[in-house]
What does this fold into?
Amino acid sequence: MLRILLGAAQVYFSWDRSAIWPEYMAFRWEAGRRFLQLIDGGSDERNGGDVVLGFTAKYCQKKRPELRPLFE
It folds into this structure.
């Protein structure tokens, strides 16, 4: 049992999480856009939906500039 836990910990800590970061952020952005469409009655352009997405895009661009194409 200890061997399994140590093996899992080694895989977790050696896993390059930065390799999947752009795909993860693209998924989060798309999921957020669709969620805002549901809340807003089918459009993310009314009632401030774009404001939320714009803030998210600016925040992510400051932290990870290589993600800029995902938000343009």
Q: What stands out?
A: The mean pLDDT is 63.
